[in-house]
Design brief:
Elements: H1 7-20, H2 23-43, H3 47-56, H4 65-74, H5 81-84, H6 91-102, H7 108-115, H8 126-137, H9 144-151, H10 158-175, H11 184-190, H12 196-199
Helix pairs in contact: 2-3, 2-8, 3-7, 3-8, 6-7, 7-8, 8-10
The structure holds adenosine-5'-diphosphate (ADP).
Catalytic activity: P(1),P(4)-bis(5'-adenosyl) tetraphosphate + H2O = 2 ADP + 2 H(+)
Pfam family, one: HD
Protein name: bis(5'-nucleosyl)-tetraphosphatase (symmetrical)
C-alpha cells in the first residue's frame, strides 16, 4: 500500500483528478489543497492530512445529477429522500466512500474532511473545519465577503472562522433561493453556546412580545 503521506501518492492522485474534473475544478482543488495546508500550519493541525483532503474533496464533482445518484447507488449508499432531491450536495459523501475503498490507506481523518466539506456536521474536527474553510477561501474564490473572511485567517480562532464561513454559505443559499439541507439548523445550533436570551428568568408577562 502506498504511503498516503508521500509525495508520490499526492502526485498520482493529482494526475488522476485532472482526468476526473474540468480544468476550472482542477485549479480550484489545487487552491483548496494549498489553502488547507496553510491553514493547518497556522492553526497547528496536520498539514499533510489537510493538503491531501483539500486535493481530493471534489473527487466526485465531475458527475452530473443523474450520474452522482447512480454513483451513490453503485456504492450501496442509502440516501434519504431529502438527499436524493439535492444531488449537488452528494459529491463529498460519495467521494469519501469511494476513496476509502480504493485507497484503504487513507485515514478516517482525511475521509471525514472530504465527506463533510459541503454540508458540514456537528463535532467537526480541526481538519474538517480546515477543508471546509479552504473550500470557500482558496484564491480562486472572489467577492467582498470572501476577502473579509480571508483577513480573519490567523486572527479568529478556527471555530469562529468556521462559523463565519458556514454563516456565509447559509446566507448565500438563502439569497440564491436554494433549498436548505434540513440538518443545517441542528448543525449550527450544536456550535452555539447556551444563549443568555433563552436562559433569562421567566418573563412576568406570559405573552412576552406584548398583548394585542
Ligand atoms: N446546508 C446546505 N444546504 C443546502 N445546500 C448546501 C448547503 N451547504 C452547501 N450547499 C450547496 O452545495 C453545493 C456544493 O457545495 P460545495 O461543494 O461546497 O461547493 P462548490 O461546488 O462551490 O465547491 C453548493 O451549491 C452549495 O450551495
Amino acid at each position: 500500500m502506498a504511503d498516503w503521506r508521500s509525495e508520490e501518492f499526492y502526485e498520482a492522485r493529482r494526475a488522476e483528478l485532472e482526468d476526473r474534473v474540468g480544468p476550472h475544478r482542477f485549479k480550484h482543488s489545487l487552491g483548496v489543497s494549498e489553502t488547507a495546508a496553510s491553514l493547518a500550519r497556522i492553526y497547528g493541525a496536520d498539514e499533510t492530512a489537510a493538503r491531501v483532503a483539500g486535493l481530493l474533496h471534489d473527487w466526485d464533482k465531475g458527475y452530473d445529477d443523474p450520474g452522482i445518484l447512480a454513483r451513490a447507488d453503485e456504492l450501496g449508499m442509502e440516501l434519504t429522500d431529502e438527499l436524493v432531491a439535492m444531488p449537488r450536495v452528494l459529491h463529498g459523501l460519495t467521494a469519501a466512500e469511494a476513496l476509502g475503498r480504493e485507497f484503504p490507506e487513507l485515514p478516517p481523518e482525511v475521509l471525514a474532511a472530504i465527506e463533510r466539506h459541503t454540508l458540514g456536521d456537528v463535532d467537526m474536527s480541526d481538519s474538517d473545519m480546515i477543508v471546509y474553510i479552504a473550500d470557500a477561501l482558496e484564491p480562486g474564490r472572489k467577492g467582498k465577503t470572501v476577502e473579509k473572511l480571508r483577513k480573519q485567517v490567523g486572527k479568529s480562532n478556527l471555530r469562529e472562522l468556521f462559523l463565519d464561513v458556514y454563516a456565509y454559505w447559509v446566507l448565500l443559499i438563502m439569497e440564491r433561493r436554494h433549498p436548505m439541507y434540513s440538518r443545517t439548523t441542528e448543525i449550527w445550533n450544536s456550535y452555539m453556546p447556551e444563549q443568555e436570551v433563552f436562559l433569562s428568568e421567566a418573563n412576568p408577562d406570559p405573552i412576552p412580545w406584548g398583548r394585542p
